[in-house]
Amino acid sequence: MRKHNIEAFNSAYRIILFCMLTFVFVSCQRNSDMQGEGEVFLQGSWTTESVPNQDQLLRYELIDFRFNCDSVFVKIKTYSKAKMDVDSCYGNGEWAEYARGVYSVRGDSLIVQATYTNENWRQKLSGCHHIGQYLPRFKIVKQTKDSLYLENRFSHNPVQLRKTETTTCVPQKVY
C-alpha cells in the first residue's frame, strides 16, 4: 500500500512539474536585442530656440531632442536670472544637462523614459544638478514636417521645436 502511494505521489509531482515548466516557457517572451523603429515623423534632431515670454521669466529651459529609432537623446539648457546657489554648478545662471533613453508615442502623448547622463551620454552618478531618471511627459499639440509643438504635462509649459536634421532609423543591436 505504501509503495502505491509513493508512485502516485511521484506521478502527480511529475505532472505538476511538467505543467509549471510548460507554463513558464509559454508565458515568457524573449525581448528582442534589436532597437525598435520608433516614430518616423520624429526621426532626427529638434531644437527649441526660444520660450514664449522668456525675457519676463526668472527661469526657463530650452530643450534639444535627437530621436534615433526608439532612442532619444536630450539636452536641457537652463537659464536662470535668479541666483540659485553659491555653488559653481550654476555658472552665471546658465547650465546644460543631458539625458538618454527611449521614447514612445501613445495617442497624443510623447513619453520619455531616460536617465540623466554626462555630456558624453554615459550615466551620471554624481555631480551637479539632476541624477537619476528623467521622465517627462509631453502632449503633442501640433506637428508639421519641420516643427513640433509640445506641452509639458507636468508644468504645462509649451515646447516649440524646429527640426534641424532628418535621419532614417537603422535599428542597431542593443547591448
User: Which geometry do the CA atoms define?
Assistant: elongated
The CATH C-level name of the largest domain is Mainly Beta
Using only C-alpha atoms, the radius of gyration works out to: 25 Å
The helix/strand class is: mainly beta
Main sheet makeup? 8 strands, antiparallel, barrel
Helix run count:
1
Oligomer type: single chain
Total of domains: 2
Give a count of the beta strands, DSSP E runs of length 2 or more. 9
Head-to-tail CA distance between termini: 58 Å
- CATH architecture of the largest domain, by name, is Beta Barrel
Please bin the fraction of helical residues.
10-25%
Instruction: Quote the average pLDDT.
Output: 87
Strand order of the largest sheet: 1-2-3-4-5-7-8-9
Uncertain segments: none
Percentage beta strand? 35-45%
- Which fold name fills CATH's third level, the topology of the largest domain? Lipocalin
Reading the helices and strands in chain order gives HEEEEEEEEE
